[in-house]
Amino acid sequence: MSAFIECDNLVKIYKIAELEVVALRGLDLTIDQGEIIALVGPSGSGKSTLMNILGGLDTPSAGRIRVANHDLAEMKPRQQVRYRRDTVGFVWQQTARNLRPYLSAQENVELPMAFKGVPSQERQQRAQRLLAQVGLADRTQNRPHQLSGGEQQRTALAVAMANLPEMLLADEPTGEVDSESAATIFDTMRTLNEEYGVTIVIVTHDHAVSSRVNRVVGMRDGRASIEVLRRAGQDGVELTPEEFAVLDRTGRLRLPQAYLEALNMEKRVLLRMHDDHIGVYPDLQDVSNSEVNTNER
Questions:
Q1: In this structure, are strands 5-16 and 62-67 parallel, antiparallel, or unpaired?
Q2: What CATH code is carried by the domain that includes residue 178?
Q3: Which range of residues forms the domain containing residue 110?
Q4: Cα separation, 182 vs 205, whole angstroms
Q5: Which of 11, 161, 233, 256 lies deepest, with the highest CB count within 10 Å?
Q6: What residues have CB less than 8 Å from 196, skipping those under 6 apart?
Q7: Number of structural domains, the chain?
Q8: Residue 257: inside a domain, yes or no?
Q9: Cα–Cα distance between 129 and 290 in angstroms, integer?
Q10: Are 141 and 277 in the same domain?
Q11: How far, in Å, are 66, 69, 74, 77, 185 from residue 112 at the CA level?
Q12: 16 part of a folded domain
């Protein structure tokens, strides 16, 4: 069974004046249906570019990207509009991009459904149900300025789910709220994920998000560099997250910077094949076989 999201050797190049900026450099990534994943990394790592491409707001320069049965690299403008309306829900960091200030919470949730042509009674019922699911059943008639920052973002989640999308994209959804509100927002996303099976991709600078999602993909220089997975052990007990380096389809492996610095690795490394593992060592002239063997133990 194929993955819900497949990025194969994805490249994105922006041209600014006479300069070309490479935002994605052959990115490979797969995401399963119903997964909650976070993309983390410094500014310029390519995570926002990837989110815009996933959301149909931008197109790749090269490579292949599929979401469900949609080939995003080949979609025409009219197909992109339908894709953004029916398949994707967006939550932005800035409230002004999520909510209309002159509409109540319920009216904001109903608005995407109105654009899709959902009948009035169904719009009202679905909006009330979604607001109840995000913990705002008693705030349906409040306008955004009458809601706290956390309540505004939970309303935005209900808006994003209005047309029952298959994928929810959240760009720094907790960037402007306190830690308690952030925890509530993540719990709300988990509830929506469990209730609707929606695949959720979160873009964030916050590495602490690893305790809230199934998988964290660390991005650097336009590629996926590390992954942190949370796995269930015996009797469903959740184990401590494990960090993995990402091996791309050509066999390239990006080692964590801390490892490179600790072992003074530069330019080349020495590889040794063993029965059950590969040893990676600094390329030093004075490293003897005995020292390598000692390091292996």
A1: antiparallel
A2: 3.40.50.300
A3: 33-61+75-245
A4: 13
A5: 161
A6: 161, 164
A7: 2
A8: no
A9: 67
A10: no
A11: 24, 22, 25, 19, 21
A12: no
